[in-house]
Design brief:
Pfam families: Methyltransf_11 (PF08241). This is Methyltransferase domain-containing protein. InterPro entries: Methyltransf_11, SAM-dependent_MTases_sf, Thiol_S-MT. The protein contains seven helices and seven strands. The chain has 206 residues and is α/β, with parallel strands linked by helices. The chain has a single domain, classed as Vaccinia Virus protein VP39 (Rossmann fold, 3-Layer(aba) Sandwich). Strands 3-2-1-4-5-7-6 form a seven-stranded mixed β-sheet. The chain is globular and about 40 Å long. The chain binds S-adenosylmethionine. S-adenosylmethionine binds next to loops.
Length: 206
């Protein structure tokens, strides 16, 4: 019962705060400003990306967790963009094959339970020549930190709604038949070392 209270009433507010860390906001700006047209954002969270969609007209905001989406509603109302909330999981996208120009994922792939299934779905709905834009925290390149990430992931999953500290997202995307048009790694300031390494990338269907 205490855990349920934490998940419903405390975690969404913690998430909303942490996801506004200034170095993460800088990454959002760089990732999202170039995007124009129609976008599917998976794991929309509390809507922190909205101000950075400067040339987007329609946004499908896919967010399965109603308690988290609740904190996005004010931002959605204040936005000039047409935002359509889609209450579904990335593992089963309610979109047609080859129908989406741009898909955005910011710190969402860490939390999806069946990641291979979700990446297959992203691959299915993305248009040929369309782009998946992402920034995600990933497995460290330092063995000592990797060990710690593996050790702490079960705890992190309980505390942070399914978040894995130890995913090799680059490899997962290659395995799902994406190829990169842009890719670099960075250590984000103001984030604990255990989740500091970020993959910033744009990818297309192979
Ligand atoms: C760490 S939060 C990031 C939120 C937001 N993308 C941001 O940048 O602030 C992870 C988000 O992924 C969502 N999520 C978890 N499992 C998911 C799934 N299977 N499909 C889609 N979204 C999922 C969570 O509800 C949460 O909103």
């Amino acid at each position: 019962m205490i855990y349920k209270f934490y998940q419903q009433h405390i975690f969404p507010h913690l998430l909303n705060q942490v996801m506004q860390t200034p170095s993460l906001m800088d990454q959002r700006r760089e990732l999202l400003l170039p995007i124009a047209g129609e976008v599917l954002e998976i794991g929309f969270g509390t809507g922190v990306n909205l101000p950075f969609y400067q040339n987007v007209d329609t946004l499908y905001a896919l967010e399965p967790n109603a308690d988290i989406y609740q904190l996005a509603i004010k931002r959605v109302h204040e936005s000039a963009i047409h935002v359509q909330h889609v209450q579904a999981s990335a593992e089963k996208l309610p979109f047609a094959d080859n129908s989406i120009d741009h898909i955005v994922s910011t710190w969402t792939l860490c939390s999806i339970e069946h990641l291979d299934q979700a990446l297959a779905e992203l691959h299915r709905v993305l248009k040929p020549g369309g782009t998946l834009h992402l920034v995600e925290h990933v497995l460290s390149d330092r063995p000592a930190l990797q060990h710690l990430q593996n050790l702490l992931t079960p705890v992190q999953k309980r505390l942070a709604d399914g978040c894995h500290l130890n995913r090799n997202i680059e490899q997962d995307l290659l395995d799902a038949h994406f190829s990169f048009t842009e890719k670099h790694y960075l250590d984000a300031a103001g984030i604990p070392k255990i989740a500091q390494r970020m993959l910033f990338a744009r990818a297309q269907k192979q």
